[in-house]
Amino acid sequence: MKEIRAIVRPNRLDRLREALRAIPNFPGVTIFKAEGFTAPAAVDKRTVKDELTDFTGKLMVCVLASDEMVDPIRNAIMEACSTGAIGDGLVWTVDIGDIHRIRDRAQL
């Protein structure tokens, strides 16, 4: 079992939702509001004001999925959320140990 996480632009959420729903047996998604900034060396900002106010709103996407679903989900995220510009975000995968559904305590 894996967790696929991504930081994406909020204005790409509708495209992302459609792309994820199109994946057969898609397990579901959780979205968090997030803020952050790009690595300073990647951006041409030089003033102190710019350095202190460059946080931009982002979304964190979290999906728990079986190992075989990782590639389709990751590819859907990258396709739906790419604009080709700095700040498009990141996607990564984390191994998950045990998962239990709270409602009936079933191990997934």
From TrEMBL:
Gene3D superfamilies tied to this protein: 3.30.70.120
Gene Ontology BP terms: regulation of nitrogen utilization
Gene Ontology CC annotations of this record: cytosol
Pfam families to which the protein is assigned, alphabetical: P-II (PF00543)
Bilayer-spanning residue ranges: none
GO molecular function terms attached to this record: ATP binding; enzyme regulator activity
Classification via InterPro entries: N-reg_PII, N-reg_PII-like_a/b, N-reg_PII/ATP_PRibTrfase_C
Name recorded for this polypeptide: Transcriptional regulator
